[in-house]
Amino acid sequence: MSNSFFGIPRLNQDQSEPAAGTVPPQPEALETLSGAIERGRHLALIAAEGAGLAALYAAAAVRDLAAGEAEGRAFVLTATVDRARRCAAGMHAVARAAGREVVVVPGAAGGAVARAPILVGPPAVLLEGVRRGDIPAAALCTLVLDDVRALEPARAAVEAVVQASGDGARRIATTHARDAAFDELVERWLPRARRWPNELFAESRAGESEAGRAAGPAIAVASRATREGRLARLAELLHDLTRGGAAAVSVETAPDAVADVNAALALAGLRVAGSEAAGTAETDDGETETGGGAGETDGDAAETDGGDEVRVGAWGEVDPAAHAVAFELPPAPEPLARAAAAAERCYAIVDSLHERQLELTALRAGLRVAPLAESADPALMDDVAAFRARVADALEQQDLASGALLLAPLIREHGAARVAAALAGLLRAADRPAAGEREAAPGGAPPGDAATAPPDRSARRATRPTWTKVFVGVGKRDGAGPGDLVGAITGETSVAGGQIGRIDIRQNFTLVDIDSLAADAVVRGLDGSRIKGRQVVARLDRGAR
Predict the structure, then answer these.
(1) In angstroms, what CA-CA distances link 352 with 224, 225, 247, 357, 368?
(2) What confidence tens digit (pLDDT) does each residue in 368-383 have?
(3) What residues contact residue 146 under an 8 Å CB cut-off, 6+ apart?
(4) 215-224 pLDDT, tens digit each
(5) Strand ranges (DSSP E) for 193-253?
(6) What are the φ/ψ torsions at residue 539 (nearest 5 degrees)?
(7) How far is residue 432 from each of residues 201, 384, 428, measured CA to CA in Å?
(8) How many alpha carbons lie under 13 Å from residue 141 in its C-beta half-sphere?
(9) Which site from 201, 332, 518, 536 is most exposed, i.e. has the minimal number of CB atoms within 10 Å?
(10) Residue 33: CA atoms inside 13 Å, Cβ hemisphere, count?
């Protein structure tokens, strides 16, 4: 395939513009679906951020705008404004090369919104522009639903925008986890859509085959939000793996990142095959020894009996060693599958935004992911052991049914292990006294004195929420269950799961205990909303004080 797509420069997953003098690899999704985009077909994708979705959205919008009327428009609906900004940044170079402007709404002036051919933003904001007449929905030629699962709380606005777009617009829908709602949306709004990737559409839907998803070797994953953080974590991992000089490690990354990774690892004191910085490494005696030069081949490096323990190369260019590490998100499943087949252990270090896509890529390769253990501070181990003991006591003594019911939607979406890890982090943060409280004890008491001890259990109970009952006009006769109520409350409001208490479902209505500080917000959010297809009335229970 040529270096451009419909005359558009190629983009990779993580940058909005290619570096000068380089041709970034084309995202797998865009390359695979180029024919479907050119033919104007609807598209349904199981993919997440990092899969090159922004480049695909831009290619489809540019093609449709060129083929349609002069005043055509393209909408990209995102769950948040932050996601809209990242998506627009990834679309910018493609659109600019075609003479098109991308605008994030809200944030742009009214005139820019009225003129821009490609608009990116939350559904409610774009719907309001359509209703005011600022945006002509009749001219819509491309409609993108970015991460349908994340758009679920705004379902009503999404449905309204889809209906306003009419039948002439191409529709693209993505999700990070396939479920019944996504399948229904595809069947309803994207007839005969081209589906990608085939392996994931052939899988059972999310939550229906957890045992199957747990099969296969595991890839230990760590994520960091910054490039510097990921390089530091890579160096830390490699030091652990090569300690003692017995392990051989291969690192695969993007072609344009090989030099940076080599330099960072050499500066961290690691012996890197083919790196000039690794040519002289200090021994335990303080003397220097010569390692492989920059001109050595991988085979030469392998003959140094452990002198060069780390080999770094582009995807597919390095044979997996005893330990194989993928640095950044692989462009396709093949590097992970190859490493899993040849290496004893596999690892991945990726951008925090790309964790979901890594899971999907691993799943396509028949693999699973597991968190990479972080280094523990020995000083905290006693505290960690005490926390684990508390959790063990809770498992033995507490009624877990209500908690499992409350967390069921999160477990279905994220998996039990990740939900448990998140809850553990929240509990540990709540138990840990603030830095100021530790350092400044009343009356000059030293840190660790009784004056600065964490509050006892009776004090913690005093800070728990007081409850207010909220009446919701849906009940057993409507087929409503606790999960429907929790989903409606968290979807229509900003209330967290911990602010929802007992749910008492009667025949014709339901009473829900809500944190008193959030009760009014729940009433406003639920009143007039739909639960199990029924428009409900919500109000404070008449018995509430």
Answers:
(1) 5, 5, 28, 10, 17
(2) 999 988 765 555 455 6
(3) 53, 57, 76, 77, 78, 79, 83, 87, 174
(4) 578 999 999 9
(5) 194-196, 218-224, 249-253
(6) -160, 165
(7) 44, 12, 6
(8) 20
(9) 201
(10) 27
Half-sphere exposure of 17 (CA within 13 A, CB side): 8
Q: For position 136, what pLDDT does the model report?
A: 73
Interatomic CA distance for residues 404 and 466, integer angstroms:
22
* Contact yes or no for 158/131 (Cβ under 8 A): no
**pLDDT in the model for residue 403:** 74
Question: For residues 241 and 351, what is the distance between their CA atoms, to the nearest angstrom?
Answer: 21
Cα 501 from Cα 513, distance rounded (Å):
5
Write the burial class of residue 116 (CB in 10 Å: 0-12 exposed, 13-18 middle, 19+ buried): buried
Count of beta carbons in the 10 Å neighbourhood of residue 308: 25
- Cα three-residue angle 153-156-159, rounded to 5 degrees: 120
Pairwise CA distance, residues 160 & 203, whole Å: 31
Distances (CA, A) of 287 to 280, 307, 356: 10, 15, 46
Q: Phi then psi for 422, rounded to 5 degrees?
A: -65, -45
Adjacent-strand bridge partners of 290 = 280
Which residue is listed with tokens 């480049």? 55
Question: What DSSP assignment string belongs to 323-353?
Answer: EEEEES--SSSHHHHHHHHH-SEEEEEEEGG
Residues 201, 85, 32: CA angle, nearest 5 degrees: 30
Number of H helices, E strands in the chain: 23, 23
- Which residues in the chain show pLDDT less than 50? 1-23, 207-214, 277-307, 380, 434-463, 544-545
- Please state the pTM of the whole predicted model: 0.64
